[in-house]
UniProtKB/TrEMBL annotation:
Matching Gene3D superfamilies: Toll/interleukin-1 receptor homology (TIR) domain
Alphabetized UniProt keyword annotations: Receptor
Keyword Nucleotide-binding: no
Protein name as catalogued: Toll/interleukin-1 receptor domain-containing protein
Domain TIR, first and last residues per copy: 8-114
Protein source organism: Polymorphospora lycopeni
Family matches, as InterPro entries: TIR_dom, Toll_tir_struct_dom_sf
Higher taxonomy: Bacteria, Bacillati, Actinomycetota, Actinomycetes, Micromonosporales
Keyword Lipoprotein in record: no
């Protein structure tokens, strides 16, 4: 198994460490990576943080099942957390007649009670299959930076423009890309305040109003979008003399398939990605993004839009005349 293709998390009670180490060694001989907390948690590390991080990366959790582990609060937390993430869990029984808790008892288990006939091959096959299986679990989504997924107009509308503007940290950048940005244009005064008083450097990108609506709009069950009206409201925004803030508007040659907001709040970089611009509000869904491992999905989406805007001049700029007017 190549690095990064899967990780087996071994859950066990401290008194069963010898059994856990035997599992780890046998998996290692088969080329399967595993996590065993005794060797991975250093002095001073926060136990729960290290364990949950390993579970988030795991493709399979193997539970060393004995009377001690079944009664262990820590072991119960580990396999329950994994199941909540959608990570496969395999109970490995080391004691005859052992009664497993309800949820764990419903899973397919392996019997290692007889030392002479332990099904190592079956365990290793399960580990390899889990590592290579094309599966998206909540743990993997978290590593990509996906914080929340939701659908429907009501839930999406809760991410109001004013709420997002209130979250933007002073002296940071705000990027907003969408088809018409109608809802943002209605809050042009709040955007003005954000630019002037917070020193925010804002960039907005929407469809070029010179394009015929029939050329970029897909019929949907909501009102016809008036891009020109939004642009006229954006023209009212300016930065006060001496302010570090700026405001720019860019025109897109076609309609983006989703809207994207990128900002920095108290928790760091944040993104809001809404899909289905041509669908009814009830059919749309959105994703909240944070920086994941290696910057994750949020960084990638931002880079695409940032590069796109760098290839064209702003048509409205609060920092001087737009290049189209020069």
């Amino acid at each position: 198994m190549a690095a990064g293709d899967g990780l087996v998390f071994i859950s066990y009670a401290r008194a069963d460490e010898d059994l856990a180490r035997s599992l780890r060694d046998r998996l290692s001989q088969a080329g399967v990576s595993s996590f065993l907390d005794t060797g991975e948690i250093r002095a001073g590390d926060e136990w729960r943080r290290v364990v949950t991080s390993a579970l988030d990366r795991a493709s399979l959790v193997v539970v060393v099942c004995t009377g001690r582990s079944v009664a262990s609060v820590e072991v119960t937390f580990e396999w329950a957390y994994a199941m909540a993430l959608g990570v496969p869990v395999v109970p490995v029984l080391y004691e005859p007649g052992l009664t497993l808790p309800g949820t764990l008892a419903s899973l397919d288990r392996l019997s290692f009670v007889d030392p002479a006939h332990r099904p190592w091959d079956r365990l290793i096959v399960r580990a390899v299959e889990a590592g290579w299986k094309d599966r998206i679990s909540l743990g993997r989504l978290r590593r990509l930076g996906v914080e929340r997924i939701f659908t429907g107009r009501t839930n999406i509308a809760r991410q109001g423009v004013r709420d997002l503007l209130d979250r933007v940290l002073p002296q940071t950048e705000l990027l907003v890309v969408g088809r018409s940005l109608e809802s943002w244009a209605r809050e042009f005064q709040a955007i003005q305040d954000c630019v002037t008083h917070k020193g925010v450097r804002a960039r907005f990108a929407l469809v070029d109003p010179a394009l015929a609506p029939d050329g970029w709009m897909v019929p949907a069950d909501y009102a016809h979008l008036d891009v020109g009206a939004a642009v006229e409201k954006f023209r009212k925004i300016s930065s006060a003399p001496g302010s570090d803030g700026s405001f720019e508007v860019y025109f897109l040659p076609n309609a983006p398939t989703f809207s994207f907001v990128h900002l920095h709040d108290a928790a760091g970089a944040y993104g809001f990605l809404e899909f289905g611009a041509s669908l009814s509000f009830a059919e749309r869904f959105a994703i909240e993004l944070r920086s994941g491992d290696g910057d994750g999905l949020l960084r990638s989406v931002f880079k695409v839009h940032d590069a796109m805007l760098h290839t064209r001049p702003p048509v409205i700029s609060s920092t001087g005349p737009s290049r189209g007017e020069q």
